Amino acid sequence: MKKYTTIGGVALAATLMLTACGGGTPSGPASQKAEESGGDISKLISVNAKEAKDLEQGGTVTLGVGSIGPDFNGFSNVGNSADNSALMTPVNTASISSGGIGGCWKLDFDGKASPNKDFCEDVKSEVKDGKQTITIKVNDKATWNDGTPIDVKTFENTWKMLRGEDKSIDIVTAGAYAFVDSVKAGANDKEVIVTTTQPVFPLEGLFFGLIHPAINTPEIFNKGFAGEMHPEWMAGPFKVENYDTTAKTVTMIPNDKWWGQKPVLDKVIWRQMEPSATIAAFKNGEIDAANGRTLGRYKQLEGTTNSEVRRGQRLFAGGLNINAKRPALTDVAVRKAIFTAVDRKAIRDVRFNGLNWSEESSGSMMLMPFSQYYQDNYPVKDTGAEAAKKVLTDAGYTANDKGIMAKDGTPIAFKITNFGDDPTAAATSQTLQNQLKAAGMDVTIDQRGDADFGKVIGGREFDLTISGYTVGPDATDAVKQYYDSTTNENGLGDAELDAEIKRLATISDDKERNKAAMDVEKKHMEKYYSMGTVLNGPEIQFVRTGLANYGPSLFKSLSNVPDWTTLGWEKGAKK
To answer: Parallel, antiparallel, or unpaired: how do β-strands 131-138 and 191-196 relate?
Structure first.
């Protein structure tokens, strides 16, 4: 499941899922470029990796986050944000279906999946007569914080809540759960037998995140986590000690009920703050990391005492997130004109100004350009204001007395919603605004705080945003979420594409399956113009010197922490 994220500010990225070594100099950031297919992705990892045994036991790490809540159910549309994922991972690795770990699975830096033995010691699959049987051996010690065993009841409930049969349950996507026929106990309740109506690949499309059996009604699922974290329904190496809604902080301490590897740290503190506030907080020693993804932030953070820079690739795709259900954007010709009007390089030049980061235009929402399965699916080749006006003219639009393209007396008018107070993010939105205005569209800016991101995006309270989704190593999960007419948030698609999506999940060969997924994306983009990739971008983190196992981590973690149990301080470093 892909998580929403902004292009700048404090918001992080997440889902099933790079970073380069290199620091800044007094004259600016070190030069770096994105990797293409076949490139060396090890250049995109920078975490100061240390063994837990070599670190100082104890200590506190304090981190900033753009928003805390307001809904803590990451499986729902309202809770489906990168900030939520980052916040919840330390305390609920059982449920987080994003980043590098969640439920039955964990990912390595390169995106290769293996069973997460804290929960699922073994996962086996057999396909016979067109159907699949998956056998899962659940860790005998795996237990929710309230004492409920993590067993067949958990897996059955996860399937029932996420399969999409009950349309009143506000899930992001049914994904592979729509193809599950039954979930039953095997030799005992800790052996789970899953049968499917058709083969399902990759296997990590199932149970990359588990749902507590008590979360079993639409009411609880949709509204039960509004302002309420429900730590009793979690399981992870940390537990929630305090959620202070007034101070907007969450304090976490080691979970005495956790059966896996014990954390190095004594405490993790999250503080909700706008992007601009994280700069002063990092410089003053109040938080231990801050992103420097824009030149303004980089320059302000540069030179901070007791800090270093860790750089890599951000697993993000987006820039054109269009709400096709809004009145001004229901016409596909208008959406095509938006795609056509955009000068993607000019937007990237603004966004990456001074960061010494270079990348070619990306043409997929589902895979990074360095993926061996990547292909450029951007549906427009002839771009610019005049080309966009021609798209509109051919669709029956004409310029009114104000120069705005209109049809049947209604001018094209909509808003770009910008989040946070970062000046580069604002300039990026303004650049897009000017490009669209030059194509004859009446476009204004709707400015919101970073804390509004989950509410606005999850509630679809926008026309267009320069936001996007996290990117995973396999396109199978994303293609259904984005392009199936029954699950994508714009409701765009058709029976032919839906059938292709259903079929591709049965393909066991990774290369063949991903090619089929990319072909679906190409057809959908060319026909519906609902989401487009303008940029991917770098991951640049300023980190307190001596903080180990933190930084750009590619698919192993989208919250910059590859393993929360090994996050900690080198001996003699700040605690």
So the answer is: antiparallel
